[in-house]
Glucose/arabinose dehydrogenase
Amino acid sequence: MRTRSRRIARWPLAPLACGLLLLSGCADFDGTPTAQDWKPAPELTPQAGPQPELPGADGSTPGSRGPSTPPTSVPPPQGCKDFDEAVIGTCMDTVAAVTALPGGQNPAALAGERKSGRVFQVSAGAEKQQYAELAVDATGGGGLTGLTLSPSFAEDQLVFAYVTTPSDNRVVRFAKGQEPKPVLTGIPRGGSGNQGSLTTDGNGALLVATGNAGNPAAAADPNSLAGKVLRIDTSGQPAQGNPNPSSAVLASGLTAPGGLCKSPDGSRLWVTDRAADKDLLYRVTAGQPLTSPAWTWPDKPGVAGCVDGTSLIMVATSTAGNVQNLPVAADGSISGKPSATLDGENGRTYGRLAGMEQISAELAVAGTVNKDGGQPVSSDDRVVLIVIQPSAAIPGKD
């Protein structure tokens, strides 16, 4: 029997080219981060690019094994059964948040429904299982919008979530089948800008991207938790090594963040954001305001989760329904126009995508939100696997 890695390598995925206990109230911040003179990013509309061919399970590259064969068609889903091998979870509602689970022969993840607050465990070849249910208020774009495993998940089995309640936005923690407990509360909520995102920094801290709750002034206010990238420990306190030791703020200036991601070596941190007139990707520098994006999308594809695949940043979009792939130079700068994959032009599309997280050097996992304004199929909303390739593998890339 073929291994799963070989089956993944044969998918006609049109894959991507490359990837806290209790604190009540608001924190006090002692100062506003100093500005840095960054060049503004070019305002260019992303160009659709060709879909790359997958490398073989043996590591071979396109063209090294003779002519490529046309993608095999996949039958449409029948009810909740999806015949696409990339799909590992089906029949959920607006999967806005995902986080990869470690270990096991098959890729597995936790998937969070934005509107219901339900969290499911999904994996290839198995039925989804409810893992937890969090009380959420999904108005104003909020609800359950972020998930990440504890930095010490192997020992404590804890999961952290970013949720909206009737009174605030907050970070909570929970274990399987248990009631959530607050970690960081008092993040402002408003009529919009309530979504947030979570990841870990690789050094035992949590990274939290918060929306501005519909108040742009809050994003610049050092005494507000809104519109920020925060760095906290697992009890909700400012993490050791922050620019201001008494403040959780790492960077300021967000509107409605869609995703946080870091490079495999932890040297780069990125956050996607949706402003009133454009979508943006920022490279986060500790202690510096988010004023000069690394890239902007004037056509507003709805940037969401992201993955740093070393030579390329992959950004899921929840409006355009594709993945934007931006090549990254050795110095960490964006070195060219983005190309679109999983867009249906030269391969498959899964529709609107939201949360995305890297599983390994070769795979990422993403959730779909087609039931939130898209065109759902019978098996939506879904959790899908996405293959990561180096940017050099994309035809037409320098």
About this structure: Residues 1-71, 394-398 have pLDDT under 50 and may be disordered. The two ends are 38 Å apart (CA to CA). The first helix runs from residue 4 to 10. Residues 25 and 186 are 5 Å apart (CA to CA).
